[in-house]
Amino acid sequence: MGALNIRQVRKIFGNVEVLKGIDISIEAGEFLILVGPSGCGKSTLLNMIAGLDVPSSGTIEIADRDVTHLPSKDRDIAMVFQSYALYPNMNVAQNIAFGLEMRKVPKPQREAAVQRVAKMLQIGHLLDRKPGALSGGQRQRVAMGRALARDPKLFLFDEPLSNLDAKLRVEMRAEIKLLHQRTQTTTVYVTHDQVEAMTLGDRIAVMKDGTVQQFGNPDDIYSRPATRFVAEFIGSPAMNMVAATRSGGALQSQGVELAATEAQRAALQRIAGQQIVYGLRPEDLGFADSGLPGTLSMIEPTGPETYVTTDTAVGKLTARIPGAVHAHVGDRVHLQWQPGRAHLFDAASDLRVA
Fold this sequence. Notes:
Layout: E1 2-13, E2 16-27, E3 31-35, H1 42-50, E4 57-62, E5 65-66, E6 77-80, H2 92-102, H3 107-121, H4 136-150, E7 154-158, H5 166-183, E8 186-191, H6 194-200, E9 203-208, E10 211-216, H7 218-223, H8 228-233, E11 240-247, E12 250-253, E13 256-258, H9 262-268, E14 275-280, E15 286-288, E16 292-301, E17 305-312, E18 315-322, E19 332-336, E20 343-346
Parallel strand pairs: 3-8, 3-9, 6-7, 7-8
Antiparallel strand pairs: 1-2, 1-4, 4-5, 9-10, 11-12, 11-14, 12-13, 14-20, 15-19, 16-17, 16-19, 17-18
Helix pairs in contact: 2-3, 2-4, 3-4
């Protein structure tokens, strides 16, 4: 049974097409991430799944039921917002139980639900407190508890960690992942943070300008990006991109020949364009005694690894080196990589050359 099916959903505001025929389907229990830069349409799509907006065309199904034009209250969903949206005059227990009370759930069942989610989220000691007396992380747990108390068919998260500091974001991200593992409730999660996308999602939809650039599992998205945009958006530091020209079976950039495998050269013969983008993940670059020469222009130690930027004939290349780097800005170095680790894109279409 499909837990969520989005079919050819379009949204037009005036003369602007915000969503351009979105197709996404996930199964029950999956964790879907909608990720992309601001303005890509991910929150608009979430609002339509939630029933807060209606598509201009297309259909949305939840548990094989067409809900395209149903109001939110009839969709059996629960939503967690970036702003928490807690009632300041109610204590934690009352906030968690409020949705159930509005649905006229009997008091004993409401109280049991409050105790169940409070134990799950480890906020049992906070039930008598008002939101004003809670930290940001505690408020987010309460907001999640209110959603969990519903036991819905679908959880919707709209950038729930954006208001938290870096350390708390990491902690809450882990809690959300553990929560999903316990409940196995189908979840749709909107974020602009690619780390959240990679660590939380079973399936990821990378969005840009109202389109889904790629839809797949985290390994597919990272290891086989379908477009140049996906390759640059997912991964930190971002993938190095080198403008190259195809000449026969060889690739050249600024007079430097870029190594390619037999399979890559064969794939290049199947496209018309001569201009290619040669992509390298920073972790696939390393120092060697020979290779592409360059001058170190920036060294960024992070503790377990070091980001090193090198000025080369083909442009600036960033490498991610394990541990500390015993070198200095201005030093001459050589970079090497395995050709099979390179990602090739057609410069005209930005599509992956497969």
